[in-house]
Amino acid sequence: MSKNFDVVVIGGGPGGYIAAIRAAQLGFNTACIDEWKNEKGGPAPGGTCTNVGCIPSKALLQSSEHYEHASHGFAEHGIEVKGLGLNLDKMLGRKNTVVKQNNDGILYLFKKNKVTFFHGRGSFVKGDANGYDIKVAGAAEETITAKHVIVATGSNARALPGVPFDEQLILSNTGALAITEVPKKLGVIGAGVIGLEMGSVWRRLGAEVTVLEALPAFLGAVDEQIAKEAQKLLAKQGLNVSLGVKIGEIKAGKKGVTVEYTDSKGDAQKGEFDKLIVSIGRTPNTIGLNAEGIGLKLDERGFIAVDGDCKTNLPNVWAVGDVVRGPMLAHKAEEEGVAVAERIAGQHGHVNFNTIPWVIYTSPEIAWVGKTEQQLKAEGVQYKAGTFPFLANGRARALGDTSGMVKFLADAKTDEILGVHIVGPMASELISEAVVAMEFRASAEDIARICHAHPSLSEATKEAALAVDKRALNF
After folding, report:
1. What would the mean pLDDT of 332-347 be, rounded to a whole number?
2. Cα(148)–Cα(9) distance, rounded to whole angstroms?
């Protein structure tokens, strides 16, 4: 096996494995190093996303939603369920199977594209513009060389100061996906994407869930109108969210966790939980990379410093994904990975941060792209807004899920779409039309003039675009 490569990628998450495949497609002799292990100690590429993030969480969200439909929703459809039971072991087993299928799929793609895979932890030894020595610490330590290095080492869950994760009582996303018995009372610190998704899973399965959020506003990064609608819908389901809290002492006992906190009114409160999920953000993972030893520059927050093209301060060393600036999203990492591989080949790889979609996979789903109304106001941009509720959509009625709405924001003069925001059924799929439209700098009128299938949820997108000009047809 050759130990000299044109491109070596450190990290096999969405940014890393995609970068390696694209580099190989472009004719480079490429290797990817990744240390994730499965239960048997074998390779499990795919990073946090595949192993303890996007993929397993969606598997559990789907399973728990089926359970909730069976226990509450099916009766409305004339389907009577008697003797409903929950086999949590089987549910977790299915989640693990889905993860393994994705792990195996990546290994297959490496083989198909002739990417050499090394199972272990990659770190810099030495190097310059002529090439870099990379140590692979795995079952057997070895050193490989690379002309170009792409760092895609991802991120780690941020712990509260003095409250480390034990993944038994105090859980990160890793432990939250592997609870073996539905807790009676579940505490969640942080009402972000992970907190809301994991809280939703365990609430559906029977837990009493309390979410504690330090910020005074619910989902502050989301369009305010959409966030308020989402908060109302989630509260109606029984997800208890307290905003503006100040976390105090956290004590883990033999059987549970006690959280002392001050509520938004300044009153002292105490929450007693069987389990506590801490989801207060993530930190860039540069542990063991030997960044200091080789002179790789980090910024003040610990991210690898890069320019607009993902170049680091070292010649021929690049970095993508969670370990660099920008949103910590798997699809953002993938786009950067492709762009870097193409830049190494002398092409003009491109990532448009303004059209990266965001999704929260609660029920209803929340998805958006572009600017929020509050951002446009702060920037002094003149805009028009149009909304359309799923309550007036025929397909949503047939589905039995009419919660939420679609919202368009367009430039007041040119009608160019500046942002699209959705809370409702299948928002994660519906948002793609808005991404495409914004990439082509479409106007709201363009979407309003496009024929959408009937009956479909996508008609709500068309109607919201029509509403920008105050001419919605079905509301």
Report:
1. 98
2. 9
Domains of the chain by start residue, with CATH: 4-157+283-351 (3.50.50.60), 170-280 (3.50.50.60), 355-468 (3.30.390.30)
CA 203 to chain centre: 20
Q: Residue 350, SS3?
A: coil
Distance, CA of 194 to CA of 196 (rounded, Å): 6
DSSP 385: E
Q: Are 418 and 452 in contact (CB under 8 A)?
A: no
54, 177 Cβ separation under 8 angstroms:
no
Match 């099916």 to its residue by tokens: 74
- CB of 177 within 8 A of CB of 281? no
pTM: 0.97
**Is 454 known to be catalytic?**
yes
Catalytic residue among 77, 148, 331, 454: 454
Query: How many Cα atoms sit within 13 Å of 111 on the Cβ side?
Result: 6
Among 138, 186, 147, 157, CA closest to 52: 157
The single residue listed with the structure tokens 């990073």 is 47
Looking at the chain, the number of H-run helices and the number of E-run strands are 14, 21
Residues 6+ apart with CB under 8 A from 76: 400
pLDDT in tens, 52-108: 999 999 999 999 999 999 999 999 999 999 999 999 999 999 999 999 999 999 999
Confidence of residue 2 (pLDDT cuts 50, 70, 90): low
The DSSP code for 169 is: S
Report residue 161 as tokens. 């100061």
Spatial neighbors of 312 by CB under 8 A, at least 6 apart, are 151, 296, 297, 304, 305, 306, 318, 319
Tell me if the bond preceding 364 is cis, omega within 30° of 0: yes
Average pLDDT of the residues in 295-310 = 97
